[in-house]
Prior knowledge:
Order of helices and strands: HEHEEEHEEEEEEEEEE
Strand content: 35-45%
Number of domains: 2
Largest sheet: 8 strands, antiparallel
Structural class: alpha+beta
Distance between the termini: 72 Å
Oligomer: single chain
Radius of gyration: 27 Å
Amino acid sequence: MRVLIARTAIFVCLLSLGTVLGGTALGQGNSNKTPASPSIQATLLKPGEVAAILPPAVFFQGKSAPVQGRNSGGIRFEDKSLMLVSLIDTSGYSSQVQEKYQAYLITESPLDIDGHRLSPGAYGCGFISSGFIVMDIGGHDLFIANATRDSDLRRPTPLQVMTAPEESGKYRLYAGRNFVSFRIATGN
Length: 188
C-alpha cells in the first residue's frame, strides 16, 4: 500500500512539474511559444465614418473646398494610422484644376501607390487619362501612377476604397470603375 501511495505521489509531482515547465515532463516537449495574440487587421472605413473624421472643407491651392462626405472612404491600418480620401466640390476652381483635382487624400502613414512613395500629409488627387495624379496642397504635380479599369466591378460608385483581391495588405482606390493600387510603404 505504501508503494502505491509513493508512486501516486511521484506521478502527481511529475504532472505538476510538467505543467509548470510547459510540458517538458513526461515527454511532452518544450515549445517555448507564448500564446498567439489576436491579430489586428486593417479596417475599411465607410463613408459615414470618414465624413465624421474629415473637416467639412479642405484647403488646396489657395482655396477652400467642401468635401463630399457621401463619396469618401478610408482605412484604419493595423498600426491605427488612417488613410482618408473624399471627393471634393471643385466648382470654385479653374477647369484645368478641376480636371486633375477631384479628391482630397490624407494619410498618416507613408503609402506606396503603384511604386510611388507618398509621405504622410494631405494631397489633391484625381484620375486623368494617363493615370492617377497626386499633387501637393499647392497644386504641384508629384507623380502619376498607373490606373486600371475594372470592367468586372459589380457596383461602381463615385469613390470607394476596397481590399485588393490578389494580395493581402494591398488596397484599391476606385473612382467609378478606374482604380489605383496602394499599400503602406515599407523601409525608408
